[in-house]
Amino acid sequence: MTVDVLIAGAGPNGLMLACELSLGGVRPIVLERLPDNTKENRANGLVGQVVRALDRRGLYERLSGGAEPPRPSPAFVFGALPLELSRLDDNPMYGLAVPQRRVEQVLEERARELGVEILRGHELTGLAQDEDGVTVEIAGPEGPYTLRTRFLVGADGGHSRVRKLCGIGFPGVTRDGSVSIGAHVTVPAELVDAATGGLNVPGYGLIPPFMHHRTDHGLFVYAPFPTGTLVNTTEWNRDGGGDRPPTLDELRESVRRVLGADLPFGPPEGAGPHLLRRLSGGNTRLAERFRDRRVLLAGDAAHVHSAIGGPGLNLGLQDVINLGWKLAAEIRGWAPPGLLDTYETERRPAAERVVMHTQAQSALIAPGPEVTALRVLFTELLRDERTIKHIADMMSGADIRYDLGGDHPLAGRPAPDLTLETETGPVRLAELTRAARPLLLNLTPDAAPAAALDGALEGWRDRVDLVTGKADRDAPAVLLVRPDCYVAWASDSPRLGEKERDALRAALTAAFGAPSGTSSGAGG
Ligand SMILES: Cc1cc2nc3c(=O)[nH]c(=O)nc-3n(C[C@H](O)[C@H](O)[C@H](O)COP(=O)(O)OP(=O)(O)OC[C@H]3O[C@@H](n4cnc5c(N)ncnc54)[C@H](O)[C@@H]3O)c2cc1C
Question: Which atom of ligand 1 is nearest the CA belonging to 311?
Answer without folding.
Answer: 11
